[in-house]
Amino acid sequence: LNLLSTTQLSKVYGPVFTVYFGMKPTVVLHGYEAVKEALIDKGEEFSGRGSFPVAEKANQGFGIIFSNGKRWKEIRRFSLMTLRNLGMGKRNIEDRVQEEARCLVEELRKTNGG
């Protein structure tokens, strides 16, 4: 499925249509207005993701990439909060990581190899 074929299909079926990859239905949004309506105007309704059984088994439903629904929102919120606390968007995050590494090294030195 490429851009040319989706353009041709949208002329026949409109800007929102379904194609099947094997037995799996896939909804196609074609054009700026259809994408804007789905992702901006109705973003909450379209925030879900498809399932990836192999990844779900390996990650047990955790992680930002393959999680879904309420769990995805919680993990995303936590990750953004943590990154902001580390300085993302405020100052160079590399400086913050180096500062944390220096503190860790200092604490390890205090143990005298214990």
Could you explain the architecture of this structure?
Helices cover 55% and strands 11% of the residues. The protein is mainly alpha-helical. It folds into 2 domains: 1-47, no CATH class; 52-114, no CATH class. It has a two-stranded antiparallel sheet. The mean pLDDT is 82.
Brief digest:
The protein is mainly alpha-helical. It is built from five helices and two strands.
Helix content percent band: 55-70%
Low-pLDDT residue intervals, each spanning 5 or more residues: none
Beta-strand percent range: 5-15%
Order of helices and strands: HEEHHHH
- Can you count the beta strands? 2
Sum up the overall morphology in one term.
Answer: elongated
Structural class of the secondary elements? mainly alpha
How many domains, in number, for the residues?
A: 2
Largest sheet: 2 strands, antiparallel
N-end to C-end Cα span: 61 Å
* Discrete helix count: 5
- Kindly report the spatial arrangement of strands forming the biggest sheet: 1-2
- Determine the mean pLDDT: 82
- Rounded to an integer in angstroms, the radius of gyration calculated over CA atoms is 22 Å
